[in-house]
UniProtKB/TrEMBL annotation:
PANTHER family: BLL6224 PROTEIN (PTHR43716:SF2), D-2-HYDROXYGLUTARATE DEHYDROGENASE, MITOCHONDRIAL (PTHR43716). One of its GO terms (molecular function) is catalytic activity. PROSITE patterns: FAD_PCMH. This is FAD-binding oxidoreductase.
């Protein structure tokens, strides 16, 4: 019996896609930089079916590529072009298994979109705080596999910190049942950590139990203009001192970013023109008017800002957030860019930006750097969208640009990937820059669990 026949028997013939037209959506990454050709795309509906597909993989030597919403930017869920790999797309596994209001947890299958999990929590008056631009299409399994970060890491942590339990299928077909919603569990190895942030190379996540929080009643949002990243870091510390963990989000935005938004999204209005801006938000369970008044009093009379705007309504809050959310779309409309997802300690951000900017300018005079991101947790989206006149040779310069940016990030005790993952795009860079002992440990675990190398081959390692 052929591999395809056995796979069809497991998931049902209607849920095994083999025609090119049907598989096309699963074979290219979101940025369309990586293109593959699978043996087929399987759409399992249960953990048992996933386990059976993994066992089939082991029996036949068929590589497996787990895929969630396919919103990643590094090719981590794209098959290669060999036509041998079976893509395991989990969108049919989209049940909210339980919401435990008293324990403040939700248990969701891997194919649930992030928005569906957020809605399930909200339906019980609770908050699942992970927030991403792709939340309507990205899936929980992919969020865990990439250890997604997003806008609220400053207060709530990234996906690793939001995950209490996991269900996953190992490369030998065994299922790990570890969905307990426990905040304290000191009974040996924490199995879920093997799967969070490791991009499916150790197995396939099928469900997770996630932390929930009280739903904020009030949000106060402000955009302030500043003259330097050093001023942004000082502002972050002042806000923390005054408002503590009510500071939920703190985003750094360069003037170049807002110029692109103004040019390519003309319906968006810029409130002022500054070299740098910070968009930040407070949230708590109190009254909206009280929180607004506290922030207004803090802002009033301060001379550290070039300018400042405090949202006075939900509409104005959405308008301020749209300035941040449209940056990536404005970049896309403007043309290609070499994207980076680096992180350095918050204290090192001004020095990193100065040093890396000078090195890039020396190598590529007149280059255009588009910087924005989550300064509150040290994660910057550091993109280069122009290296030479006409921008015609941008990707010819990618190797040199990456070498400068990654070398500089690691010189400041940083990393080349804060929240987007490694995938295919950064795999060789990780091998070059990452701690050798840590790389050796990952390879040892990979060999022990997946000696044939069938789980998401060509990714991360």
């Amino acid at each position: 019996m052929s591999t395809l026949t056995r796979a069809a028997d497991i998931v049902g013939a209607a849920h095994l896609l083999t025609d090119t037209a049907d598989t096309a959506a699963y074979t290219t990454d979101w940025r369309q930089r990586f293109h593959g050709r699978p043996l087929a795309v399987a759409l399992p509906a249960t953990t048992g079916q996933v386990a059976a597909l993994v066992q089939l993989s082991r029996d036949t030597g068929t590589p497996l590529v787990p895929q969630g919403g396919n919103t990643g930017t590094v090719g981590g869920a794209t098959p290669d072009a060999s036509g041998r790999a079976l893509v395991i797309a989990l969108r049919r596994m989209n049940a909210i298994r339980a919401v435990d209001r008293d324990n403040a947890t939700v248990t969701a299958e891997a194919g649930c979109t992030l928005a569906e999990v957020q809605a399930a929590a909200a339906g019980h008056g609770l908050l699942y705080p992970l927030s991403l631009a792709s939340e309507g299409s990205c899936q929980i399994g992919g969020n865990l596999a990439a250890n997604a970060g997003g806008l609220a890491v400053l207060r709530y942590g990234n996906t690793r910190e939001l995950t209490l339990g996991i269900e996953a299928v190992l490369p030998d077909g065994q299922v790990i049942h570890a969905l307990k919603g426990l905040r304290k569990n000191n009974s040996g190895f924490d199995a879920k950590q093997l799967f969070i942030g490791t991009e499916g190379i150790f197995g396939i996540i099928t469900a997770a139990t996630l932390k929930l929080y009280p739903q904020p009643n009030a949000r106060a949002t402000a955009l302030v203009g500043i003259d330097s990243p050093a001023a942004a870091v000082a502002l972050l510390h002042e806000l923390h001192d005054r408002f503590g963990d009510r500071l939920t989000t703190f985003e750094l935005i360069s003037g170049q970013c807002l110029s692109l938004v103004a040019h390519h999204v003309p319906e968006v209005r810029l409130p002022f023109d500054c070299a740098w801006s910070v968009l930040f938000e407070l949230s708590d369970g109190g009254e909206q008017a009280a929180l607004d008044a506290q922030l207004f009093d803090w802002l009033d009379g301060r001379d550290a800002f070039v300018d400042a705007v405090l949202a006075q309504s939900g509409r104005e809050r959405r308008e301020l957030w749209r300035l941040r959310e449209e940056i990536s779309e404005a970049q896309r409309r403007d043309g290609p860019s070499i994207k980076h997802d680096i992180a350095v300690p918050v204290s090192a951000i001004p020095a990193f930006l100065d040093s890396c900017g000078r090195q890039l300018e020396t190598a590529f005079p007149g280059c255009r750097i588009v910087t924005f991101g989550h300064l509150g947790d040290g994660n910057l989206h550091y993109n280069i969208s122009h290296t030479r006149p006409g921008n015609t040779a941008l990707f010819d310069d990618e190797q040199r640009v990456n070498e400068i940016v990654f070398s500089c990030a690691y010189a400041f005790d940083g990393t080349l990937s804060a929240e987007h993952g490694v995938g295919q795009l950064r795999r060789h860079w990780l091998a070059r820059f990452h701690d050798p002992a840590s790389m050796s440990l990952m390879r040892t675990l990979k060999t022990a669990l997946d000696p044939a190398g069938l789980m998401n081959p060509g990714k991360l390692l």
